[in-house]
Amino acid sequence: MTEALIAALFVFVLASFTGFEVINKVPPTLHTPLMSGSNAISGIAVLGAIVASGAKDWNLSVILGLIAVVLATINVVGGFLVTDRMLQMFKKKVSG
């Protein structure tokens, strides 16, 4: 049990550092396409959370699945709002 926990913690820390470095090196011009891609991944997380929370009886996995559905949905909606706002910055303004 302890060895599995240490291995899982090691993978988590390594993934965190790698993710931070990758995200930190993204130029601003690529941010919008990557944001759209992460929204698609979060949409997949919503589907997975719906499947996890689909049981009839209430247990810990159903409650965690419900929380995951709510959080992933907030992430998807917020991501699309931010992406739309960024795309509005690139539109030419009509003078009139």
UniProtKB/TrEMBL annotation:
It comes from the Bacteria. It is found in: Cell inner membrane. The transhydrogenation between NADH and NADP is coupled to respiration and ATP hydrolysis and functions as a proton pump across the membrane. The chain crosses the membrane at residues 62-83. It catalyses: NAD(+) + NADPH + H(+)(in) = NADH + NADP(+) + H(+)(out). GO terms for biological process: NADPH regeneration. PANTHER family: NAD(P) TRANSHYDROGENASE, PROTON-TRANSLOCATING NAD(P)(+) TRANSHYDROGENASE. This is proton-translocating NAD(P)(+) transhydrogenase. One of its GO terms (molecular function) is NADP binding. InterPro entries: NADP_transhyd_a_C. Residues 9-92 form the NAD(P) transhydrogenase alpha subunit C-terminal domain. One of its GO terms (cellular component) is plasma membrane. It comes from Scytonema hofmannii PCC 7110.
